[in-house]
Amino acid sequence: MSIDELNDYGRVQFVEKLGAVLEHSPWVAESAWELGPFVSKEDLHEKMMRIVRLSPAKRILKLFRAHPDLAARLVAGEYSSREQRDAGLDRLEPAEVEAFMSMNRTYTDKFGFPFIMAVRGKTKDEMLSAMGMRIEQDPETEWQEALAQIDRIAGFRLDDLIDESCVEERADRHA
């Protein structure tokens, strides 16, 4: 869809299209709809992330906790399932699954939410390494890192959903 099509949607249709961009948190899309129209995919992304960052800590924590553990065999959102599958996390050896599960437990016990990482383009070794390094961070630093990862994830998902080539073509015709 184009940003123009998205701008033409009513609230319900807008939330249907974008409600899953931030894991099980359609409230972000609902709030973003009120900030439209959007001039670009980047404008939409920035406004969605501003909504998240300005939310109360309890609401952000709920967003964090909506994310699945990496390599978990539990039901995850459509985007997360695909992203983890594309990263090969559905094809791990038993010892690798145990390593991820152990790191997930350690991380969640320390921070109170699952390890969040934009896995697109990452290998399983890079993910495990990042988990190991991030477990050592202090809670405030890791909170900010989790937000940064959600920002990256949302950017990837919006890139997949919104085609801005038609905006460029329209601009070229009017130039």
From TrEMBL:
Q: What is its EC number?
A: 4.1.1.97
Q: What's a GO biological-process term for it?
A: purine nucleobase metabolic process
Q: Which reaction does it catalyse?
A: 5-hydroxy-2-oxo-4-ureido-2,5-dihydro-1H-imidazole-5-carboxylate + H(+) = (S)-allantoin + CO2
Segments forming domain Oxo-4-hydroxy-4-carboxy-5-ureidoimidazoline decarboxylase? 10-159
Alphabetized, the UniProt keywords read: Decarboxylase, Lyase, Purine metabolism
Question: Sorted alphabetically, which InterPro entries does this protein's record hold?
Answer: OHCU_decarboxylase, OHCU_decarboxylase-1, OHCU_decarboxylase_sf
Q: What is this protein called?
A: 2-oxo-4-hydroxy-4-carboxy-5-ureidoimidazoline decarboxylase
Q: In which pathway does it act?
A: Purine metabolism; urate degradation; (S)-allantoin from urate: step 3/3
Q: Which Pfam families match?
A: OHCU_decarbox
Top-level lineage group:
Bacteria
> SUPFAM superfamilies recorded for this chain?
UraD-Like
Q: Which GO terms describe its molecular function?
A: 2-oxo-4-hydroxy-4-carboxy-5-ureidoimidazoline decarboxylase activity
